[in-house]
């Protein structure tokens, strides 16, 4: 009888302690889902800088964000965004004999990707105002639209020879500002360094810096 009483006491203790442990992680927001809008500045990087020169322009991204905690203050961050990037490229043409510049063509590129970030976020302990975070990882993107137009025209045409996939390395930092117990506002900055070819002509790589604005629920 004593053994049975001890067993039931241990079982009841487990049932009461386990929910309180789960409630602790719930209050720490072990899983957060949110919406983001990220203005960005994008540019193309060419290995042959004597022929091609890229000017950065403003673009934007929007979509969903998910932070999944796997240890205290350690989160796997992912989501799904539609990222639209703009850039101007000046291409120099040279005389065949004198090798001096003869003319310059300016094109405006508009590239749009569906991107999935795969990164780790390290967050500080949450205070009265919120918490800070650092982020490191990768983005995998699939092109959904690639357009170009000359500077003196208004009509975009499909880019010839642009690549479908894009991979990038992301480094970022920011803060989550507590609005209520179940809502936080996110502000941050992210540098995304592309390391795959964007298109065949000139073999450039696409990079951008974004301002991260969002709401986590």
From TrEMBL:
<protein>
    <submittedName>
        <fullName>Outer membrane protein beta-barrel domain-containing protein</fullName>
    </submittedName>
</protein>
<dbReference type="InterPro" id="IPR025665">
    <property type="entry name" value="Beta-barrel_OMP_2"/>
</dbReference>
<feature type="domain" description="Outer membrane protein beta-barrel">
    <location>
        <begin position="29"/>
        <end position="187"/>
    </location>
</feature>
<dbReference type="Pfam" id="PF13568">
    <property type="entry name" value="OMP_b-brl_2"/>
</dbReference>
<feature type="signal peptide">
    <location>
        <begin position="1"/>
        <end position="22"/>
    </location>
</feature>
<keyword id="KW-0732">Signal</keyword>
């Amino acid at each position: 009888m004593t053994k049975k009483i001890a067993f039931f006491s241990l079982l009841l203790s487990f049932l009461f302690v386990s929910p309180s442990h789960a409630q602790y992680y719930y209050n720490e927001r072990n899983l957060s889902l949110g919406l983001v809008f990220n203005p960005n500045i994008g540019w193309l990087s060419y290995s042959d800088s004597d022929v091609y020169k890229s000017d950065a322009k403003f673009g934007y991204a929007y979509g969903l964000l998910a932070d999944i905690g796997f240890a205290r203050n350690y989160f796997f961050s992912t989501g799904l965004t539609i990222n639209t990037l703009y850039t101007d490229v000046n291409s120099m043409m040279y005389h065949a004999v004198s090798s001096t510049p003869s003319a310059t063509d300016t094109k405006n590129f508009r590239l749009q990707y569906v991107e999935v970030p795969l990164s780790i976020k390290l967050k500080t302990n949450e205070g009265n105002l919120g918490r800070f975070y650092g982020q490191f990882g990768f983005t995998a993107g699939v092109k959904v639209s690639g357009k170009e137009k000359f500077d003196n025209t208004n009509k975009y045409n499909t880019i010839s020879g642009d690549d479908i996939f894009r991979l990038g390395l992301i480094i970022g930092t920011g803060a989550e500002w507590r609005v209520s117990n179940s809502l936080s506002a996110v502000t941050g900055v992210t540098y995304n360094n592309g390391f795959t070819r964007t298109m065949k002509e000139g073999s450039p790589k696409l990079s951008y810096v974004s301002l991260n604005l969002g709401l986590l629920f």
